[in-house]
Inverse folding.
């Protein structure tokens, strides 16, 4: 369980229900497998440190995604990750290089 502080208190969430976390300045938007997204005043690095490293991958400076929701990785010129909910996330060139070597 991870406790996520937000404006109305604290939400307890299982890492398995988090699809992805998207950063926007000093805020992050958390997308859940069921339910609406939640905006919190935390930076992406905070989530990266709180969530299980083997379950989540930082694919871009703005995106941390749950590996369990990855449907497809498109390794074209602009590498993208397609999630099971249909969202397509761009992967940075540096993260693409790490993925190919690791």
């Amino acid at each position: 369980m991870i406790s996520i502080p937000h404006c109305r208190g604290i939400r307890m969430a299982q890492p398995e229900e988090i699809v992805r976390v998207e950063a926007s300045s000093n805020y992050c938007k958390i997308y859940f497998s069921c339910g609406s997204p939640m905006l919190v005043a935390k930076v992406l690095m905070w989530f990266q440190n709180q969530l299980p490293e083997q379950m989540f991958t930082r694919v871009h400076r703005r995106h941390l995604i749950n590996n369990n929701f990855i449907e497809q990785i498109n390794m074209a010129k602009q590498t993208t990750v397609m999630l099971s909910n249909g969202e397509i996330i761009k992967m940075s060139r540096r993260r693409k290089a790490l993925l190919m070597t690791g």
DSSP finds two helices and ten strands in the chain. The first helix runs from residue 44 to 50. The chain has a mean pLDDT of 89.
